[in-house]
Amino acid sequence: MNGSTIGFLLYLKFKKTIYAEYLASDYDRFALGVNQALFWTAIKQGVSKDYEFFDFGKSSKKNIGLLNFKRHWGGGGKRSPYVLLPDF
User: Fold this and answer.
1) Nearest to 10 by CA among 69, 74, 57
2) Contact yes or no for 54/17 (Cβ under 8 A)
3) Can you list the residues of the chain whose pLDDT is less than 70?
4) Are the CB atoms for 23 and 13 separated by under 8 Å?
5) Distance between CA atoms of residues 17 and 46, nearest Å
6) CA within 20 to 30 Å of 64's CA: 3, 9, 57, 75, which one?
7) Could you state, in order of their start, the residue ranges of all structural domains in the chain?
8) 2 φ, ψ to 5°?
9) CA distance linking residue 48 with residue 11, whole number of Å
């Protein structure tokens, strides 16, 4: 690894929830469980600071692999509407 970055998770905190917003990891090192380690670290940090919820973010219902990944963490799906504003 030689000190190189192999993954990154940007999350936001609001009230009692941590929201996972952007995740990136080195494809060649994906098998090391980089994404799982990033999520687990964020969850542990949230618990230590008394956050109550972790939001894995939106997913397309067509992305079965990602939905299964989130379900393995205990995540449950819910509909979340989008509102599109016209250009001004």
Assistant:
1) 57
2) yes
3) 1
4) no
5) 8
6) 9
7) 7-72
8) 50, 35
9) 16
Cα distance between residue 74 and residue 77, in whole Å: 10
User: What is the model's pLDDT at position 1?
Assistant: 53
Specify the amino acid at residue 57: G
Q: Which among 63, 51, 49 is positioned nearest to 18, based on CA atoms?
A: 51
> Residue 39: what pLDDT?
93
Cα dist from 3 to 6, 7, 42, 87, whole Å: 9, 12, 21, 44
Token code pair at residue 76 = 């449950």
Query: Up-side HSE of residue 49: CA atoms within 13 Å toward CB?
Result: 15
